[in-house]
């Protein structure tokens, strides 16, 4: 599927004129440094621009080059990412930086094949880096672009299916101009973010609304078509604030999987037929091989992830005995309470930390 040339040229012209007037001033748009553009693109995945703005500058200040990022310790990178979520992005970014140093002499690759060979870089991210940093004629297809193209060309297939994705990629490629690639791709994404919004598209403000099939048919809110999401499950989870003398125990999650590489108060998911105290004792035994005495219930905190929700129940505990073994965790530390600020922990655990601070880290007698 493609667009006739006169319409295509007019689409490009109107979109770029609009972008010249309406583009937001964002820090990653003030650079052509492919490393910094790469960092911004990774941060922007499934994360709002306002949130990324608060992190991007600090991250770049701490790791101003790909070599600086590659040399950093994993815990240091995770701490800098703390609170931004989707932590696999940080792990992959760090791994990829090390590969760039080792395989490409610290130079960000400028070919599609080399970029997608790096951890965490798929077709979209590679296209964004190549077009924005290097000005190469590579298409992009993120959520914003999918929405724009689906409405513009009345794409009624499920956009989560591979067949529809191929149509959308083909459209995105066919619309690329011969010049101003960098601005054009950013304009297309900006249009989706600011005007062709999900629930309330601002069609009267759209520079290409007269070319839009969905606007002509008044079906903007029906597109893009997506498969219905499954119900979001909820889990009860326990966590132990385990004291030994005046130190408490934290453990690091394995590098792969949800929240991989983060430190946390150890515990786990409630199984059918268990009570919370029994769950916590079992999880500590299975993951660390030690025995604990479960004390008072400290707090419960609700937290939502992308595909599920949890209620985290935290208990004051006392270490009773046994040698810690790394059965279900990657590492552990006995730390003084005020040292918690030096470790990257999940958002749900920070709610526990806040309560501990209010209690001035009293500990368990």
If you had to describe this structure to a student in words, what would you say it looks like?
The chain is an alpha+beta fold. The protein folds into 2 domains: 5-139 and 164-190, Hypothetical protein, domain 2 (Endonuclease III, domain 1, Orthogonal Bundle), CATH 1.10.340; 234-358, Nucleoside Triphosphate Pyrophosphohydrolase (Alpha-Beta Complex). It is built from 14 helices and 7 strands. It has helices at 5-22, 34-44, 49-62, 66-71, 74-81, 88-104, 112-116, 123-134, 143-152, 162-174, 181-194, 213-217, 276-288, 347-358; strands spanning 234-244, 247-252, 263-264, 267-269, 291-304, 309-321, 331-335. Strands 1, 2, 3, 4, 5, 6 and 7 form a 7-stranded mixed beta sheet that branches. Strand 1 and strand 2 (247-252) form a beta hairpin. The longest helix is centred in the N-terminal third of the chain and has 18 residues, at 5-22.
Please give a quick description of this structure.
The chain is 43% helix and 15% strand. With 365 residues, the protein is an alpha+beta fold.
SSE arrangement:
Elements: H1 5-22, H2 34-44, H3 49-62, H4 66-71, H5 74-81, H6 88-104, H7 112-116, H8 123-134, H9 143-152, H10 162-174, H11 181-194, H12 213-217, E1 234-244, E2 247-252, E3 263-264, E4 267-269, H13 276-288, E5 291-304, E6 309-321, E7 331-335, H14 347-358
Parallel strand pairs: 1-6
Antiparallel strand pairs: 1-2, 1-4, 2-3, 2-7, 5-6
